[in-house]
Amino acid sequence: MCKKLQLLVVDDHPLIASGIRQNLSDAGMSFDLFAASSGEQALLMLQNDSPWDLVFLDLNLPGLHGLDFLKTLKQKYVKLPVIVVSGQDQAGWVNQALLAGAKGFISKSGDKLEFVEAINALQKDQLFLSSRLRQGLDDFRVGVSAQNSGKIALTKRQRSVLLLVADGQHNKQISQNLGISESTVKGHVSTLFDLLEVDNRTACIKQARYFGLCD
């Protein structure tokens, strides 16, 4: 008989917990799911004697931010795995979450089957990232490594996207021109923002030209 998992969802939107519950039920998993609307409430709940197996955590929480919650949790409950579930799925955020102790990252715009896949990965003591997030993270870390060495380097795909952004094209146009999905384009643009430490396209183009990346 499979063990019934004890799960905690930390998110200030009740529909997220309901959606996770439905996804896991549809997959035939055995579990009890509890919900907390803030990091502070979750920490109090984790103090009880329940044998918690996994926490699904949003980053943008009222009060204690998700990253700070992760750091606190790591100090108090070292062995309790956390999967971040967030709409802030840019590579920079994924990287920060993993560095803070998360065992995986699920985008709120991703496939609902990823919740089951994440649990299966954790039971095998494996990190979980969707292929899209993993590629974005790999590209981001390559860029950070190059940046730390004194020169920003982009992958061939990142450079192609950057040049089209500099040409004034929107994500849909870039998607059509490069033959990739619009969500993939969005991921590359977000990674470029993170690498260049900007938050909009105008600043991205300005920084890219300063570093000679648009030549």
UniProtKB/TrEMBL annotation:
Q: Which SMART domains match?
A: HTH_LUXR, REC
Span of domain Response regulatory: 6-123
Chain ranges of the HTH luxR-type domain: 147-212
**Residues with 4-aspartylphosphate modification:** D58
Gene3D superfamilies per the UniProt record, alphabetical = 3.40.50.2300, Winged helix-like DNA-binding domain superfamily/Winged helix DNA-binding domain (1.10.10.10)
Q: Which InterPro entries match?
A: CheY-like_superfamily, EvgA-like, NreC/VraR/RcsB-like_REC, Sig_transdc_resp-reg_receiver, Tscrpt_reg_LuxR_C, WH-like_DNA-bd_sf
Entry's Pfam families?
GerE, Response_reg
Q: Which domain of life is it from?
A: Bacteria
- Keyword DNA damage belongs to the record: no
Keywords (alphabetical) are: Phosphoprotein
Name used for this protein in its record: Response regulator transcription factor
